[in-house]
Amino acid sequence: MRKAGFFDIYVNEIDRAQKFYEAVLATKLQPMDDPNDSSVEMRMFGDDFQSHGAGGALVKMQGVQPGPGGTMIYFTCEDCAVEEARVAQAGGKIVRPKFPIGEHGFVSLASDTEGNMIGLHSMK
Questions:
Q1: Which one-letter DSSP state was computed for residue 114?
Q2: Among 1, 2, 52, 123, which is most buried by a count of CB atoms within 10 Å?
Q3: What residue spans define the domains of the chain?
Q4: What 3-state DSSP class applies to 62?
Q5: By the 8 A CB rule, do 10 and 66 touch?
Q6: Could you report the average pLDDT of every consecutive run of 10 residues in the chain (124 residues)?
Q7: In whole angstroms, what is the distance from residue 87 CA to residue 23 CA?
Q8: Under CATH, which number does the domain 6-122 receive?
C-alpha cells in the first residue's frame, strides 16, 4: 500500500497564508527553497518527509492558482472543533461545521485566506 508522501497548497499571498495556517493549526512554518526555481516561495509544514504521513508546504508559484475544487487536504487534529474555532479569527471561513463521518470520526470543512478548501479531521 502506498501513502501520500507530501503535499503543496498553492497560494497568492504567502505571508497571509502562513499566518492563517500557523494560527489555525497552532504551528510554525519554515522557509523552504526550491532548488530549481528561485522565484518560487515556499513555507514548509514541520516534517522530515520520511518519519510519518505526509509533510507539505505552502507554495507561491507562477502559473498555479489556489482555489476550491482541487485536491482536498485533511489535517489531523485531536478535536477538529478546536482548530475550527480558530478559522474565522485567522481570516478564513467555515464551509461546514464539525460533522460525524461514522466510524471514521469527525470532519470540519473550511476555506483558507487564499480560497482553498481544507479539511480538519479528528476521531472525537
A1: T
A2: 123
A3: 6-122
A4: coil
A5: yes
A6: 76 96 94 86 77 78 82 90 97 96 93 94 94
A7: 8
A8: 3.10.180.10
